[in-house]
Design goal:
The protein is mostly helical and about 150 residues long. Helices cover about 75% and strands about 0% of the residues. It starts with a helix and ends with a helix. This is Periplasmic heavy metal sensor.
């Protein structure tokens, strides 16, 4: 019975996580909207070729750094699911896996902030002002709050 309940729980989790994903990009019916992604924003800033090249390098380096971290997270999540399904789950191991996953997710968030700051540093004051006035994606609510504080 426990095993069936756990399988149903994880199945429900996976299905609902899929519905949580949303399209990011400009609205098809008009001007860029709040779901516009970072690349779309960058296209609207009239970047020089040099800025585009440097931003592309920053993006590539970010992806190269994050891919192995995401893979490690996935491996630890598999271990966590297996431990949760065990007849006698090891609480200490479960908590350690949860902590390790959280620390890896923090590394990704820190790398993302570093990437954004590097890109921002490449922009001219006019481009930064234009970027600041663009609508923020719904997933970046914290950026909207920070923007209002400035």
């Amino acid at each position: 019975m426990k095993k069936a309940a756990l399988i149903m729980f994880f199945g429900f989790f996976i299905v609902t996580a899929g519905y949580g994903q949303h399209f990011q990009g400009p609205r098809p019916d008009g001007p860029p909207g709040p779901r516009m992604g970072m690349l779309e924003r960058m296209q609207m800033l009239n970047l020089s070729d040099e800025q585009r090249d440097k931003i592309a390098d920053i993006q590539t380096n970010f992806r190269k750094k994050v891919i192995p971290i995401k893979a490690e997270i996935q491996l630890k999540e598999i271990d966590l699911k297996n431990e949760m399904r065990a007849d006698e789950p090891n609480r200490t191991r479960i908590m350690n896996l949860v902590k390790a996953i959280s620390e890896l997710e923090l590394k990704i968030k820190q790398a993302d902030i570093d990437r954004r700051l590097k890109i921002r540093a490449l922009l001219t004051p006019e481009q930064r002002k234009k970027l600041k006035n663009m609508p923020m994606p719904k997933r970046c609510v914290e950026h909207e709050v920070i923007k209002r504080i400035d």
